[in-house]
Specification:
Layout: H1 3-12, H2 27-32, H3 37-42, H4 44-58, E1 62-64, H5 71-76, E2 80-81, E3 89-90, H6 113-129, E4 134-140, H7 142-150, H8 152-161, H9 163-187, E5 191-195, H10 204-224, E6 228-232, H11 241-244, E7 251-253, H12 260-267, E8 273-277, H13 279-284, H14 288-302, E9 306-310, H15 320-327, H16 329-336
Parallel strand pairs: 1-4, 4-5, 5-6, 6-7, 7-8, 8-9
Antiparallel strand pairs: 2-3
Helix pairs in contact: 4-6, 6-9, 7-8, 7-9, 8-9, 9-10, 14-15, 14-16, 15-16
Length: 338
């Protein structure tokens, strides 16, 4: 069974030989091949080399184009300083007042170097391993992108004080996200990850009113392009799990704060979860045995429709032995005691 077959069998509720393993590796993957995180997100060749290297070394079932949150923001005209390690630092925000919404425009992904690079990376990954591995493209979700362009605190205030401002912006943001997603699908991505971390900071009522309809629209258009969707909202989403299950996403990532057994009871047996042991306290700071036991516990609590990964990105500095402890199914079971 190939990794791609394994992943889609889980989504469909069919039996597999083992749970798929799809950790988010960005800076860690860059360091694995001796490059900086900045190299990884500014050089598409480095991203592809790193993803292929970790997929082969650790038996991963999916390769990814996720890299940093600023690709679409650069398309809207934001500028950044890029340190060797860590994400880019904005030189200023695009939306400072309602009048700045006019600066939002339709973006051609091919005309924006950082967006075109992600599309090209998806194509290279698909050409290299697309028959055996799922290739995950990536776009920012409506709440996350609005917060990137507006500033997180101001974005939160707008939901209370200027709700139409968010909706007006989201209409353009989602249109551009669809175009960016479709470009990656045409290049060879079979699944699109949608990162919407800022949504974890709002209550369920606001999520249902402001975020859910736009996510549903975005996901429906990605499905129309014949790709699957993975929803990634890191942070504490215990209050949102039931609503996230209504988005239409094929896979829902859950961070370590969300008990898998509780999430399964809320969402039901037909939702595919991905997660969710602690990437810091367990994966970074624990022992291989700690990691293996946490991974096995997740597998048992989540049930058959489950994809194994840390709750969020593999932290830089994580010991390689700890990564192997959850990626290798034989080692994982051995360390966990069967």
């Amino acid at each position: 069974m190939t990794g791609k077959e394994r992943l889609y069998a889980v989504i469909a509720g069919r039996p597999t030989d083992r749970p798929p393993v799809t950790p988010i590796m960005m800076a860690w993957a860059a360091h694995y091949i001796g490059r900086t995180y900045r190299d990884y997100y500014l050089d598409g060749e480095v991203l592809v080399e790193a993803q292929l290297a970790v997929a082969e070394a650790f038996g991963l079932d999916q390769v990814m184009t996720i890299s940093d949150p600023w690709r679409e923001a650069s398309g809207y005209g934001m500028e950044f300083d890029y340190p060797p390690e860590g994400v880019g630092v904005p030189r200023g925000r695009l939306i400072k007042a309602r009048d700045d919404l006019r600066r939002l425009r339709r973006i051609d992904p091919d005309a924006v170097p950082r967006m075109r690079q992600r599309v090209e990376s998806a194509g290279r990954l698909a050409a290299a391993v697309g028959r055996t591995h799922s290739v995950l493209g990536w776009v920012e979700g409506p709440m996350a992108e609005y917060a990137d362009l507006r500033d997180l605190q101001e974005a939160m205030l707008d939901l209370v004080d200027e709700p139409t401002m968010f909706h007006d912006a989201a209409a353009v943001i989602v249109e551009n996200a669809v175009a960016f997603a479709k470009a990656q699908v045409r290049a060879g991505a079979d699944m699109i990850g949608v990162g919407d971390a800022a949504a974890s900071l709002i209550n369920a009522e606001m999520y249902e009113e402001f975020v859910l309809p736009w996510q549903q629209r975005l996901f429906a258009d990605i499905h129309e392009a014949k790709a699957a969707v993975k929803l990634h909202i890191c942070g504490n989403t215990n209050h949102l799990v039931g609503l996230m299950a209504r988005t239409g996403a094929d896979i829902i990532d859950l961070d370590w704060m969300v008990p898998l057994a509780d999430a399964r009871r809320t969402a039901g047996p037909d939702v595919t979860f991905c997660g969710n042991f602690d990437p810091s306290a367990v994966l970074l700071q624990g022992t291989p045995v700690d990691v293996a036991k946490a991974a096995v516990r997740c597998i048992r609590q989540a049930g058959p429709r489950f994809v194994l990964a840390p709750g969020c990105e593999v932290c830089p500095g994580t010991p390689e032995a700890n990564v192997r402890a959850f990626c290798d199914p034989v080692l994982r079971e051995s360390l966990a005691g069967g």
